[in-house]
Amino acid sequence: MVRNILIAAAAFALLAGGASAQNEPKGDAKAGATHFQKLGCYSCHGIWGQGTLRDGPRLNPPMPYPALLAQVRTPRYEMPPYTESQISDQAVADIYAYLASIPKAPDPKSIKLLQ
């Protein structure tokens, strides 16, 4: 019974995520970089969203937009909440676009100097 409820909840979350992906606003990576710095996100998450050992988790590559928006509005742990009057959904979409535009770090196995 519990297993069926968990499976149904997971299926609903996947369907809801897919539906909201169609409605997510298009972001501007350049504006997102400005918002990321202006709001001080970099102070905990690093300038490229790489995370820090002490403060914020890694954001690059970014989580799905709906999850990022939910985290910004009702954060877990020590992150302060940001209301829509502090940062619009469009600005969050811009931050998402900025994080998505950052190239992925190379696999350490592909770096000869580290071999």
Write the layout of secondary structure elements.
Elements (H helix, E strand, L loop, with lengths): L1 H22 L5 H10 L3 H4 L19 H9 L15 H13 L14
Helix pairs in contact: 2-5, 4-5
Defining traits:
115 residues; mainly alpha; Cytochrome Bc1 Complex, Chain D, domain 2; 5 helices; 50% helix; globular; disordered N terminus
Sheet of most strands: none
**Strand proportion:** under 5%
Number of strands: 0
Rg on CA atoms, Å: 17 Å
Outline the structure in words.
The structure is a single chain. The chain is an all-alpha fold. It has a domain at 26-104: Cytochrome c-like domain (Cytochrome Bc1 Complex, Chain D, domain 2), CATH 1.10.760.10. 50% of the residues lie in helices and 0% in strands. It has five helices and no strands. It has helices at 2-23, 29-38, 42-45, 65-73, 89-101. Helix 2 packs across helix 5 and helix 4 packs across helix 5 (89-101). The longest helix has 22 residues, at 2-23.
Structure in a nutshell:
The chain is mostly helical and 115 residues long. Helices cover 50% and strands 0% of the residues.
